Amino acid sequence: MPPKREDSQLSQDSVMTVTPEDRHEILYFAYGSNLSTAQMRQRCPYSTPIGLGRLDGWTWLVNERGYANVVRAASGGGSCGVYGLLYLLPPQDEERLDACEGVPWAYEKVTCDARWVRDAQGRVLDEPVRALVYVDKSRVRESVPRDEYVARMERGIEDAVDNWGLDREYADGVMRRFWK
């Protein structure tokens, strides 16, 4: 009996080569409650988290709707950027995520330059990538989060800190300052 696909495992020396015409997934940069890989599995069952990412030149906030948003940082603001989780997102999951994120009325889809900071094995990469980011361009002022959102954010933050190398000081100083 031939081995099952789920029984096979790539060796550390394996290299996967994908040509652009074969590739259908895009990179998605999650910075809010989608830091929770459990939530993403429910929303986008075919997505794959691949590591920690960073958007340089952006600032993280909770906006007037009570949800996370990113806005371009004021020049010279000294922002360290926004950290988040990078996912490989296939087309069917992108459509599901659009619905979850309220495209086009709540968020717009923007492709941004980002950095792939750390991979799933914890290796530091610091590689440039292009990633889909959901941005609310209309509601850009700081506000307070919705009560239900705080619990989801806490789950996402803990997942990202414990499993993906998100710095706890960043999470406390940038994210949790909106509700603690």
From TrEMBL:
Residues 28-138 form the Gamma-glutamylcyclotransferase AIG2-like domain. CDD domains: GGCT_like. Keywords: Lyase. InterPro entries: AIG2-like_dom, G-Glutamylcylcotransferase, GGCT-like, GGCT-like_sf. It holds the Pfam family GGACT. The keyword Lyase applies. One of its GO terms (molecular function) is gamma-glutamylcyclotransferase activity. The active site is at E101 (proton acceptor). Gene3D superfamilies: Gamma-glutamyl cyclotransferase-like (3.10.490.10). Its EC number is 4.3.2.9. Substrate binds at Y28, F29, A30, Y31, G32, S33. This is gamma-glutamylcyclotransferase. It comes from Metarhizium brunneum.
